[in-house]
Amino acid sequence: MSADQLFSLANQTAIIGWVILVFLPRRWPPLFWIxxxxxxxxxxxxxxxxxxxYFAGGDGGFxxxxxxxxxFAQDETLLAGWIHYxxxxxxxxxxxARRSDEAGIPRLIQAVLLGFTFMYGPAGFLLFLITRALxxxxxxxxx
Length: 143
Description:
By secondary structure, this protein is mainly alpha-helical.
């Protein structure tokens, strides 16, 4: 399978997890395992395989921005990096969804938080932390 085909497959697989997180009306535990553990696990396996096969023989490394650029100049190592993002962002998205449910954050607000996490990873995580803190503060103030 080519790097382009694997890229498409990885993206489509991750999207399934995001659809489950955002659009299902409730978080039924057996189904929630799919975006929380199963899809990130499958993506992690793909990442690990690509990393083991291509990182060792590739140029570059993590010592400087130039080294990172050289490391990801090859399609397969760039794909590994992309799959890394997909796996971690989805795992963090599932964590945010669970913690949002526990904190009583409405699903519409969760959809915004998850959308930011899907598109901007750490910025979505930061937005969740701020939202959770503000909502907790609001609950304390209203008592």
